[in-house]
Protein 1
Amino acid sequence: MLAFTRKPNSAALAFIIAGSVWFVVGTIYGLFSAIHLVSPEFFDNIPALVFGRTRAIHVNTVLYGFVGSLLIGLGMYYTPALLKRRIWSEQLGWLSFMFWTVTVLSGPITFSMGMSQGREYTEYLWIFDVSLVLAVLTMVVNMVMTILRRKENLLYVSVWYFTATFLWVGGSYFLGNVMWNPSTGALPGILDSIFHWFWGHVLPGLLLTPMAVGVAYFVIPRITRTPLYSHTLSILGFWTLVVFYSHIGGHHIVQAPMPNWLKMISAVDSMFMFLPVIIVIVNLWMTWRGKGGRIFGDPAGKWIALGLFWYLIVGAQGSLQSLPEMQVITHFNNWTVGHAHIAILGFSGFLAIGGLWHILPMITRRQLYSKKLVEVQFGLVMIGLTGFFIVLTIAGLIQGESWYNGEVIYRVLPELDAYMVLRAALGMFIIFGAFIGLYNVIMTIKKGKPIDSVEHN
Amino acid sequence: MKMTPKIFIIGSVLVWAASISLMVIFPWISMEDEPSDIWTPMNEKEKAGHDIYVNNGCHYCHSLYVRTIDWGKGAERISKMGDYYQMQPAILGTERTGPDLSQEGGEHTDDWHKAHFINPRYTNPLSLMPSWEFLGEKKIEQLTAYMQHLGWKMADKRMARQEKWQEKAIEAYEAGPDSNITWLHNNVPEEWRNMPNPYPATDAALARGRNIYENFCLNCHGPVGDGQGKAAKYLDPPPVNFTTLKRHLAEDKYIGGIFYYQIMNGITGTAMPYFKRQLESEKIWDVSNFVAVWFVGYTDANIEPRGIDASYEPEWENPYLEDPPTMEEMDKKKEEDQ
C-alpha cells in the first residue's frame, strides 16, 4: 500500500512539485491584489477576491507554499546526498509534506472566507498552525536521524543550515503564533507585537534564509567544480546568522510604543545582520572566482548568482531600513513592499528556483525538458522583479516624502496611479515565469531524456 | 572548528534559546499591560467589529498607531502602550495605503461610515479601498462601532459632539429646506458670513475648483450640486442642495465666506467632514467659487470689501453678479476657449 511513498526522493519531489504549483497560485493572488490598487471596483463586492483577503493568500502562499515548499524539497534531497545515504524515512518525509501542504492549502480556502488570525505572517488558523509545527517536528526527526546514520563523516555547511532551520522554526513558530491561545493566536495588549514580529522576522531569517543559503552552498561548488573557498567563513556565517537574525524582529515596531531597550537591540543587531550576508556572499563569490563563465553559462547557476546579488541588496537595504532616521521616509509605504519582494522572490526565490533546475534532474534522473524555457523564465522573472523593485521603491519614496512634507494620505493616492499600473503589469511577467516553470517541471518529470548512470553535472 | 552533530545541533538550539530569552521571554515577564490615560473597554459590538477588522485584513492598508515620527505632521498625540490594553490582537498594521485609524472615533458620523463602507468612493472619490457592502448591514454596523471606539476617551468626546449636533442638524433639516439653510448659516461666525470670496472666479480658478469638487465633493453633493450624490441616501441629514442657496445670500450678496468656513471646518453632526487638513487655502476658495458659479448661479468673488488685490490677480470684472450663465453656456464657452 502507498508504494509510491517508499520510492527514493519521492517526498522531496512532492515538495518540489507543490512549490512549483504554489508559485503559480501565489502570484495569481498577487495579481488580484495588485488590480485592486489600480481599479478598486474591478472585483466589486466579490467577497473571496476582496483586497484584505487576497493579499493574505498571496503573501502566505508565496512564503510558505512557493519558496518554503521548494526549499524544503531541495534540502530533503541534498542533505541525504551530502551524507551519502538515503533519507532516514521516506514515509516520514511524506508525512511532513502532508502536514505542510495542508497548512499552505488552508490559506486560499479559509482566508477567502474571511477566516484568518490577521497578524501578518501568522494568519493561518490554529489547527493549521498545529499542522505546520507537526511538519517541522517530523522534519527534525527525519534530518537528525539521517545525520546520525550518515556514511559521510564530514558535515557539509548545507547540512547544518538545512537541519538547523527546523530546530529553530518549530519553537519560533509556536511562540510567534501564541499557539497556546488558539482562539486569537495573540496575547492581549501591545506585548503581542513583540511575539508577532519575533516570528515576523524569524520567518525570512531562520526559515527561508538558511535553506536558501544551503542551496547556494550546495549548487555553486558543483557547477564550478571547485572546493568551497573557506570553511571558517562558513562557520562564521552560520553562527552570526542565528545570533543576529533572532534579535531583529523589533525593527518592524521601532515607531510603535515599545520599550526603548528593545528598539535599540533590534536596530543595532539589524546593522550587524549585514555580517552573515556579506560572509556568505564573499565565501561563494570567492568559490567561483575565475569560473564565472561556468556559473553564468549554467541555467541553474544564473539564478543562484542573481539570487546572491539580491541577497546583497536586500541585506544592505534591510539594515539601513531599521534605522529610525531612514524610517522617517521609508516606513509604512511601498518602499517596504519593494524590499519584501526582493527578499522573498529575489533572494530566497531565485535561489530556490536555481536549486530546482540543478537538483530536479538529479532527483528524476532525467535531463531538463528545456533549458531554453529556463532561460525564458529567468528573463521574465528578472524583468518583472527588477521593474517591480524600482517602481515600488519610487512609489514608496513619493509617499514617504509627501507625508514628510505634511501631505495627507488621501491626496497622495493619485500620485501612485502610474506606479500601481506598472506594478500590476510587471507582476504578469512573474506569473508567466511561474507558469513556464511549472510546465518545465512537469515535462521534465514526464518526458525529460533519461540520464544514464553517469551523474548529472 | 569541526562541526559535529553535537556541536551544531545543541549549539543551534542554545543560541536560539538565548535569543528568545532576551527578545521574547524577558519582555513577556517585564512588560506590564496597564491601561493608558485615555483607554476605555470595548463593548460586545465593538469587539465584533474588531474581529471583522482583523479577519478581513483591514490592517494591510490601515495602521492603528501614531508613530513617533508623525509628531508635527498632523498628529495630535503619539500612541502609548496602554492604549492597547487587553486588545487582542493589537493589530498595529504595516502600511498606510489608507489613513491611520487609531484616532478615527468621532471623526465622522455613523452614517458617513455606512456610506463609506458600502462604497468608499461615495464619500472619498479617490479612495482605493474596496467596497464592503457584501458584509451585510449588521457587520457594517459592528465595524462602524469599532471605528467610533478607536481613540478611546478622546473618541468618546468627539462622538458626544457628533451626536449633540446631529440631533440639532436633523431637527433643522426636518423643519424645511429654507429654515435649514438659515440654521446652517447662523452657525457660521458672523465675521465669516459677511465676507465675499476675495479671489476672482476666472476660468482657470473654476477649472481648479472643479477638479477639487470632483475629487472631494462629487458623490455627496452630486454632479449637479443638488445634494443627490450616490452617498446621499445613506446620510441623515442629507447633503445640502446648493441650488437653493441663491435665496440665502448674507446681506443679499455674500456667500464666499460661508462656503470657506463650512469647507474648512466641516459641519459636525452631519456627514460633512472638515477639510482643513486636506485642502490648503487656495483650493478652498477655488472650490467655493466653482460651487457658487456652477450651482448657485452667483458668486460674490472680488466684490467689496476686497482689500488690496493679491499680486497675481488678473484684471477681472465679476460677470456672475446679475445674470449668471447656464451650464450649457459654460460648457460652450469652455469649448470655444479650447
Protein 2
Amino acid sequence: MKRRDFLKTSVAAGAALSLNFEKLQAALASNTVAVEQAPDLVAVMGGEPEVMLDKALEALGGIGKYIKKGQKVVIKPNIGWDRTPELAGNTNPELIKALVKKCLQAGAEKVTVFDHTCDNWQKCYETSGIAAAVKEAGGIIMPGNDEKYFKEVDIPGGVTLKKAKIHESLIEADAWINVPILKNHGGAKLSCAMKNLMGIVWDRRFFHQNDLQQCIADICTWQKKPVLNIVDAYRMMHQNGPQGKSAADVATLKSMIVSPNIVAVDTAALALFNQVKKLDMETVGHLSKGEALKLGSTDLKKINIKRIKI
Amino acid sequence: MKKRNYLKGLRVLLAILFFVPILLFFVDFSRVLPDSAHRLLHLQLMPALLGGMVGLIVFQFLLALVFGRIYCSTICPAGVFQDIINRLFCIGKKKKKGSRRFSYHKPQNRLRYVLLAITVLTAVFGFSGLCLLLDPYSNFGRIAASLFRPVVMWGNNLLADLLMKVDNYSLFHVTISTVTVSGLIAATVALLVFIIMTIFRGRLFCNTICPVGAMLSIFSRYSFFRISFDKETCTHCGNCEHTCKAEAIDSKNLTVDTSRCVDCFNCVSSCAKGSLQYRLQLPTTSSSAQPAETNGRRAFLATGATVAASLPIASAIAGGKGEKKMNRKGRKKWPPLTPPGSISLERFKDKCTGCQICVVRCPSQVLRPTGLEYGLDYMLKPRLAYISSYCNYECTVCSDVCPTGAIKPLTVEEKTTTQVGIATFFKSRCVVNTEEKDCGACAEHCPTQAVHMVPYKGTLTIPQVNPDLCIGCGGCESICPVRPMRAIIVKPNVEHKFVERPKEEEVKEVEVDDFGF
C-alpha cells in the first residue's frame, strides 16, 4: 500500500468511526491499529457496481489488505442459471469485471473465476455475461462442469457434511472471494453468501438428501474461508428464486454488502431483503446453524457496520 | 488410349464434401459446427422416405435414372465409409490382394428385392424397425455416435488435462453420457458388418441388404449415363472386373450390371486401353446386350411370389406392437418420453430411423438411445432420460437437426408450451415429508414454476405441481435427491399437449432507500 493511500484510508476509516482524534493519532502511528479500526461490515447503496465496490473496499482498508502480491486468487460468483443480468439470476458481470481488475492491480498472479452451474454451464457462462467480463478484465474463466475438476477434502467442522469434493482452483488458491447475488430461494429460503458455497462442491445431491440447511452451514466451515464476501444486491430476485421467471421477480436496489464475516453479511442481506419482501430469520435455517458452528454472529448490533449512501 | 480420369476425381471430391462435414457433425461434442449443418442430412433418402419429403425422393430417383447410383458413392456416408475401409485395407498390399481383389459375381436379386419389399411393407403396415436397422445413413450415424464420438471425446480429455496444467481452459473435460449398451451393440455390429462385407465382397451390403441401394437400383438399371465397354479395343485383361467393388463387371461377356454399379469410376482408371467409358447410352439400345435383364425379370417374379408369401409375417411383425407393456412386477409400465416436436409416440415410432443425430447434438445430453425396454418398435430410438440432466427450456436443437421430421421443427414459443409429459409428485418419498428437512431442488429447477413450494409443517415448504403449467422438461426429476425411486417423476404424454405460457406478471417499481439494518 502506498503511504498516501494508507493515510487516506486511515483518515477515512478513523473519521467514519468517530471523531475521536486519539484513535486517528494511533492509526497514524501504527498500521495494525488502523486495521483493527476498519469496520466489520460495509454496506453501500446508490451507485453502479464498480463505484460501490470502490467505496466498500476503500472503507475496509483497500483490496491490498485481502489480496497480496503473487497470490493465486479465485473469485466465486453465482452463475447458476441461463439468465441475462437483468433477470438477476446470476452475479452482476460488471461487479465481477471490476473485482477481477482490482485483484490483478493488487498484484495477484492469476485470477480464476468458476461456478458449478445448474443449467448447461456454457449457456450460463455466456448468457450471464460473466465469461466475457472475466476475459475482458484479464482473468481466467474455468469450467466446473465435470467431476474431474473437483477434489475431495475433509470438513472436520461439519455436523452432517464431513467430506466434500471441492473445485480444484479453490484448493490451489491462496485467497478467494465469495461474490453471491442476493436472491429468494425455494429450498434454502435465502440464497446469499453461505448458499453460494454450494457451487464450490460437486455433489449437491448429498446436501438435498441430508438436511440442506445444515449442509450449507457445514460447507462454510471448510478451513479455507473466503477472505471477503461481496454481496451483489444491485438487482435482487425477491420471488420465484433461485431461477426466476421474469423481470417482475426483480427489484433494483443498487446495493452492496461486504464483509469477511459470512454469517454477518448474510444476516445484513436478509435485513435488506426484508425491505422488499418479508422473510423471517428462523426460516433461513443455515444462518442460526452457521452461528452455532461459530462462523459469525447474527446479531448485527455486536459488529461495527459502516453504511455508505452515494 | 488411357485418358485422365476426371470423373473419379470428381466422385472423390464430392464424397469428401459430403462425408467430412457429416462425420464432424456427429462427433462434434463441443458444438463447434453450427446446427445449420443439418441441411446435409436432408439429402439422405431413407429419412426423406419416412418423412414423406416427396420433392427430395423424386429428385433422388431422377438422379439415379439419369446418372446411376452416384448417391451411393458420394451422398451416402455409409457408402463412402465402406470406400474408406476398402482404402485402408489396401494399404501396403499388392494390387492382386488389395485394390484388384474382386471378381464378378451374379447379383443376389431375390434376396435384395425380397428384403426391400419386406422393409417397405412392414413400414407401410406401421413397423419402421427394418428401415431403422437397414438404413445405411442411420447405421453410419450410430457408428459415429457410439464409437467415433467417444474416441474423439477421450482424445479431447487427454489434451484438456495437459492444457489445464498450463492454465489453458480453451478445451474442457467432457463426460461421455449418451452412449448406452444398446447403442454400442448396434454400432459395433454395424461396423463389423461393414468391415467384413467390404473386405470380402466390396459393396455387397449396398447391393443385397441396403434398402436404399435396392430402391435406387430399380432406377439405375435403366440409367441414361452408364459405364459401358468399347468392344473393339478391349483386350479382356480383367483389370476392370478385379477392381470393381460392386462386383458388377463381367469382363468375359463385357457386361456391366448398372443396377449394382455405384459410379465409383475405378474401372475407368484401371483400363489401360480406355475401353470403359461413362457415357450416354439409352437403355433401349443396351438392354439386348444385357443378360442380366432376363435374370432381373425372373428375379422380379420370384420376388413377387416371396413377398406375397411373406405378407402375413410382415403384418404380424407390424401388428405385434402396442401390446404387453407390463414390467416384471406386472405393473403398467410408462411409455418412453419422446422429444418435444415428435407430436405423439405413434408418429415418432413411425418416422424415426434412430440415426442419433439428435442424441449427439442435444446440448443437455438428455436424449439417449433405448434398447428393447420399450419393445421392438422403439429400439434405438431416442427418449428423454432425466437421469442427470433435463430438457433445456428454450432449446430446440433436436427438432432443428432431425432429418426425418420425426421431431418436427419447433419455434421457441412452441417449444416452451409443448407438454411432453407431466411431473408427478410422490409425497411419500419426498425428503421434506420423510426427513422433515428443507429441500426444494425440484422447484428450484422448474422453468415455469409449475413445481412450486407451498407451506408445510412449521417453517418447512413442500413441492406442489400445477399440471397446467408443466411441460415435462424433467428439471425436477433430474435433480430430485431421493433414491432409488425419485420423489418427482415425469409421466409421459403419449400424445403431446400444449399448455398456456406462464402469465407475465406486471413489473412493479420497488423503492428502497434504507438498508434495513
